[in-house]
Amino acid sequence: MSATLPRRRPEAIPALHPVPEYLASGERKRRYEEMKAVFQTPWMGVITMAYAHYETFYGVLWDGVRDLCASRAFVEAAQNLRAFTDAQAATLAPPPLLTRLTALGYAPREIDDIRAIVEVFAHGNFPYLLLATLTRRLLEGGEFGVDAPVAPFVGRHAPDVRPPFVLMEAHHADAPTRALYEDVKARLKLPFVNTDYRAFARWPSYFALAWGDLRAVVGTPAHEAAALAIHDRAVALVDALPNPDGLTSAALRAAAERDAPFAEVQEMARLFQWLLPGLVANVAFFQRQLAA
Asked: What is the torsional sign of CA 77, 256, 136, 53?
């Protein structure tokens, strides 16, 4: 098995058709609930909702990695990747926000609520990044998995969601926040605003400050180097994971071909695997801004 999986942005952003949770039913809905329980996240990522548009593909993928994702090895790989990402974010020198937030009138409890929501994503994005990397590996004809026993993870590894988990959708937002969303999309070169940013924008003045600092960094050589390093670590970790259910490239590719032209599914998967290393770096940046 070749360990080579270059970081690659699709030449053109593919059309995306995410299936929101409120529209999911039957087996798709069951897999959504199962995935959230295994990942211990309160949300379905845009990535997996986009996967779920291709129902055969999504079913074969999730059924083929469920036992892996519930394993101690997978959780430890996610924790390893998070620690590595935090170290990369430190190289970007995030400026502190606490004094500025206090000057705006934020009380300690409000700042703690922001920290709690950032922590949800700082933890929860890494299972998605590992899954996206594994998926791209298989769709591009590679295999993954080492011969190793799989022990289930027992207990809770995720933070509790103390403040309500609220997403500020564009149609809920005022004009300045909508303009900020447009700037996020333009700066990140994406057609959508990630769930993370919509959750952070529940506090519009906080997110405006946080994004203003990050905006100056995104796309710089230092940020690109951090994203590439995170990508490379994710690839190495995926290549070292076990494959308890024996999911193969041939099986996943065949499932994709039953749903749509293969290139359509592959380009969708490439987009998410490309953007997630930058996203996790950005969330780690936001978390460091809030350090006491």
From this structure: negative
